[in-house]
Design brief:
Helix 1 packs antiparallel against helix 4 and helix 2 packs across helix 4. A 3-stranded antiparallel β-sheet has the order 1-3-2. The termini are far apart. Helix content is 62%, strand content 12%. By secondary structure, the protein is α+β, with helices and mostly antiparallel strands. InterPro entries: ArsR-like_HTH, HTH_ArsR_DNA-bd_dom, WH-like_DNA-bd_sf, WH_DNA-bd_sf.
Length: 115
């Protein structure tokens, strides 16, 4: 089975890198990849206010890295595996670009200057 992964637009790439530029937000993503959690549960793990954690979750939500739903009085945060897969594809494209550039530099350095 072939899974088609839709690439990110420039605006989505900007939102993802903005969201992941913060250590707390990267930690939130890692925690909700492991298991979905309420915003209250997430907030208990940080030395910051509940409102601050909510703002971090909102940034991640705008980047589509997490999704939030309501269960009773709690807001449950879960990772969006499809969005994370799209980010992985983007990073693999950058890795491929740099590997090709490094290989080209190696080839240039290996050329015999007398020929």
């Amino acid at each position: 089975m072939v899974v088609q992964i839709q690439l990110l637009s420039d605006a989505e790439v900007d939102a993802v890198f903005h969201a992941l530029a913060d250590a707390t937000r990267r930690d939130i993503v890692a925690r909700v990849i492991e298991r979905e959690q309420s915003v209250s549960s997430l907030a208990a793990g940080y030395a910051m206010s509940f409102a601050a954690v909510q703002k971090h979750v909102a940034v991640l939500e705008r980047a589509s890295l997490v999704a939030k739903s309501r269960q009773g009085r709690e807001q449950i945060v879960r990772a969006d595996p499809a969005a994370i897969a799209r980010v992985r594809v983007l990073l693999e494209q950058y890795e491929t670009l740099w590997r090709h550039r490094a290989a080209r530099i190696d080839a240039i350095l290996a050329e015999d200057p007398d020929q």
